[in-house]
Design a protein that fits this description.
The protein has 13 helices and eleven strands. By secondary structure, it is of the alpha+beta class. It is globular.
Length: about 400
């Protein structure tokens, strides 16, 4: 009995000591912990080259892992859709990997999968992009597949019909999605007849009208070597990758470009409230905004602050948008709160709040450069918006230099 009692007592004493030690080490949660100095991002240099056909090449070497990302960026997107063919650029991009060169859609997909590679094509407002991600030892086999997709898409009629039906179905479903309806109508209300006001997917009338001939004509007018930038990031050196690009893309022809000149969208003239009644909706979708700023605005870093709102950037001024979904019976109160906050941003911002915002943006920025795909995505901005080659090395410093007056 004595022995057992001694062991229990000793154990109790040890537990009490442990509890005392833990209490002594408990963190002070009365104030937020101090933020560390944001790290400066120093990237390898962006090397610039030109292929024999005039295509621009931006190369960043990243040798830690034997993979490479190649993105071909062509200046032609949804902003250049004909007025009676809205969605043409998007559908053309979607069709480019549905059969190319000597392969149909299934054969092309099988060839890509066999190499363990990934090829994707997409359209934005001002670009068509085709990207390849592959292991370096497979590059010689994968790069010709990317070249076929960009230079030699076949646009099969049956694949177009499949895409058409799929998009028409999506449009039908979108009519029952209040968030989609709100976003489409917001763009139209803000930009009117400007291409920025067009729906990205298309309209039913345009979808039914687009033909294979339209796809081929758009491709022929815009997908040219002198209208392209090739971004390369990965475990390659110039003496390795440039000859490979020449072999795969050297027969890509340059030519006259059919890129239209777009006027900047007109600013909102007055405050206007538009109401769409959707009986039975459990929530109200709110969109508030005006024409914002172009990507190359000198205020880019000062505009990168805010909660629940933001700027959409393009070559021309895109939208500023504040948005939310609220319970229907709270719609009026939500609108009042929105405009209270939009008015409050004109008042001086507390230094502590500004410091937190600056540090949040600066500390999170290096994460965008952890992978070759992340780096390539950022280098696209250099190509599309004609930014300096060393733009991202000074990004954190420019964020930290933002003053209360700037915001």
């Amino acid at each position: 009995m004595t022995t057992i009692t001694t062991r229990i007592g000793s154990g109790a004493a040890l537990l009490m000591c442990g509890a005392t030690s833990l209490l002594a080490q408990a963190p002070d949660r009365s104030t937020p912990p101090p933020l560390e100095e944001p790290p400066r991002l120093t990237l390898p240099p962006v090397q610039e080259h030109t292929l024999s056909n005039g295509a621009r090449v931006l190369l960043m070497e990243k040798h830690q892992v034997p993979v490479v990302q190649i993105t071909i960026i062509v200046r032609a997107g949804s902003a250049y859709d004909p007025a009676d063919r809205i969605g043409l650029a998007s559908i053309m991009a979607d069709m480019m990997d549905e059969g190319a060169g000597s392969r149909d859609a299934l054969e092309l997909a099988d060839a890509i999968d066999f190499l363990g590679a990934r090829i994707g094509v997409g359209a934005t407002m001002h670009t068509i992009t085709a990207s390849l991600f592959t292991a370096v030892p497979k590059l010689d086999d994968a790069l010709p597949l990317l070249a076929d997709v960009v230079l030699r898409p076949t646009f099969p009629e049956d694949e177009l019909e499949r895409k058409r039906v799929s998009r028409l179905t999506s449009l039908l479903q979108a009519h029952d999605e209040p968030s989609t309806v709100a976003s489409v109508l917001f763009a139209k209300a803000l930009f009117g007849d400007h291409p920025y006001g067009n729906p990205r997917v298309s309209t039913e009338t345009s979808l039914r009208a687009i033909t294979v001939r339209d796809l081929r004509e758009f491709h022929g007018a815009h997908i040219k070597a002198n209208n392209a930038t090739i971004v390369v990031v990965g475990d390659v050196m110039p003496e390795d990758i440039l000859p490979r690009l020449e072999r795969a893309l050297g027969d890509w022809e340059a030519g006259d470009l059919a890129t239209p000149t777009l006027a900047a969208p007109a600013q909102v003239a007055r405050r206007e409230v538009l109401l769409v009644d959707k009986p039975g909706a459990a929530q109200s979708e709110i969109r508030i905004g005006r024409v914002g700023a172009a990507r190359k605005t000198k205020d880019y870093f000062a505009l990168d602050y805010g909660a629940g709102s933001g700027f959409g950037y393009n070559l021309l001024p895109g939208p500023f948008r504040a948005a939310s979904a609220v319970q229907t019976d709270a719609t009026q109160a939500a609108l009042q709160e929105f405009f209270k906050e939009l008015a409050a941003i004109r008042e001086p911002i507390p230094d502590e709040e500004l410091t937190r915002a600056r540090n949040y943006l600066a500390l999170g920025f290096p994460a965008d450069f952890q992978s070759v795909r992340g780096i390539a995505g950022n280098l696209e901005d250099i190509a599309v918006y004609d930014l300096p080659l060393d733009y991202f090395n000074g990004y954190v410093d420019r964020v930290l230099d933002i003053s209360q007056r700037d915001v």
